[in-house]
Amino acid sequence: HTQLKDGRLLVESTGGERFKILDLVAAAPVVVADVQTLPDGAGVAGEDPTADALAAAVAAAFTDLLRLNLRLGLVKRSALLAKPGGEFAPSGPGPDEVVAAGLAGKSPAAVSWWVGSHFADSPAHQQALLQEDDTRTRLRASLEVLAGSARYLRARAAVEGALAGGGGGGGGEG
């Protein structure tokens, strides 16, 4: 949690299992509900070779996307991992270290949740990913979103490079 200057608290919680809300018990001061846990599948690394391969592909795609963001200056290396208390480390880790730290020893299901949790800037994508019914589907959907984001950033880098180089003649390699 983080305490604000006015005394309020910002609390972030991470769910460990999928669930369905059965009944709202209380709405204030915090939401409390009766829930039913839902099955997810592919919960343990090594149990499902397809899910393991998808999780590895998602980790690689996420790493690639971080590299692109760094190259374009959209994310600062120091912001990749913040020190406790919220201040940023002066020289942060690289994308490989961030992904390795976030996914070390994680099951395919945990990989799918971890990656989905990083789409906070795109709530519609985040919700779509996190509400998928099973791990493999969530991982496949994550790959699609990550690949689309990478294509966009590569195109943006190409356009910015052409504009910075005085290009704009309309022709080019394809």
Structure description:
The chain is mainly alpha-helical and 174 residues long. 46% of the residues lie in helices and 10% in strands. The chain has helices at residues 49-71, 95-103, 108-117, 123-130, 135-164, and strands at 2-3, 9-10, 19-26, 32-37. The strands form two sheets. A two-stranded antiparallel ribbon has the order 1-2.
In short:
The chain is mainly alpha-helical.
Trace the largest sheet across and list its strands: 1-2
Quote the distance from N terminus to C terminus: 49 Å
**What structural class do the secondary elements suggest?**
mainly alpha
Unreliable residue stretches: 82-90, 169-174
Number of strands: 4
Assembly annotation: single chain
Number of helical segments with 4 or more residues: 5
Shape: globular
Main β sheet profile: 2 strands, antiparallel
Relative strand content = 5-15%
Attribute tags:
single chain, 174 residues, mainly alpha, two-stranded antiparallel sheet, globular, disordered C terminus
List the SSEs and their pairings.
Blueprint: E1 2-3, E2 9-10, E3 19-26, E4 32-37, H1 49-71, H2 95-103, H3 108-117, H4 123-130, H5 135-164
Antiparallel strand pairs: 1-2, 3-4
Helix pairs in contact: 1-2, 1-3, 1-5, 3-4, 3-5, 4-5
